[in-house]
Amino acid sequence: MSFDDKDLRINRISAMIELRSITNENVKSVQRLDQIIFPVTYNKSYYKDLPNLEKFAKLAFYNGAMVGTVCCRREVIDLQKRLYIMTLGCLPTHRRLGIVMQR
Fold this sequence. Notes:
The chain is of the alpha+beta class. It has helices spanning 3-15, 27-37, 44-49; strands at residues 17-21, 57-62, 65-77, 80-90. The protein contains three helices and four strands. Strands 1-2-3-4 form a four-stranded antiparallel beta sheet. Strand 2 and strand 3 (65-77) form a beta hairpin. The radius of gyration is 15 Å and the shape is globular. It starts with a helix and ends in a 13-residue tail after the last strand. The model is unreliable at 1-10 (pLDDT under 50).
């Protein structure tokens, strides 16, 4: 595959990916997706807080299907601001498509 072919493939995949906010209406779907992606179970308070994270909690959709999540929180440690990634995951069938690289 040439460099130009790879760029075209990345652009096509990017056009099929959409990031959406986690809301009270879709948080149950996030919980079900997390059960498939991750080997651990998160408690109810984790999911209760996700809609409040706004720009730090997103769902990834590929061709309209929910396929991944990313959830972060801001922290201040020793007067330094940091972003802590709590979860970052994608369904096994959709890995290696560049989904978690989207902005």
